[in-house]
Specification:
It is built from four helices and six strands. The chain is α+β, with helices and mostly antiparallel strands and about 120 residues long. The strands form three sheets. A two-stranded antiparallel ribbon has the order 1-6. Strand 2 and strand 3 form a beta hairpin.
């Protein structure tokens, strides 16, 4: 997943404010993780979740929770309130798709398609 609207925050308020947003987003996303799930920041404004025992319906429910968790405004140190969204691509393992690199590739393609909508 990556953040929608993050570049504008960096451009308008500067990178220290962008860092505040990343920290708050990571805090909110981490609160949505189940025991055994892994949340990682891949770089920039990109995050990934590796969820164990998660079928497609579970993944969709998690996506909804993640999106809802970052929807409220984020207050910056300068008092400004900003808002970001997330675009998400999902992939689930199967008998044909078990390799981590393949799953990330599928999720990345799904993320790209979600941005086209």
């Amino acid at each position: 997943m990556d953040l929608d609207g993050f570049k504008q925050i960096n451009d308008q308020f500067g990178h220290p404010s962008g860092d505040q947003v990343l920290i708050e987003v990571a805090r909110r996303l981490s609160q949505q993780m189940r025991h055994g799930d892994l949340l990682a920041r891949l770089g920039g404004d990109e995050f990934a979740v590796v969820a164990r025992c998660c079928d497609y319906d579970d993944a969709i429910a998690m996506v909804r929770r993640l999106k809802d968790s970052i929807r409220p405004d984020i207050q910056l140190a300068n008092g400004a309130k900003v808002r970001v969204g997330i675009s998400v691509g999902t992939a689930t393992s199967s008998l044909v798709c078990t390799e981590a690199t393949e799953l990330f590739d599928q999720a990345d393609k799904a993320l790209y398609l979600s941005k086209l909508r």
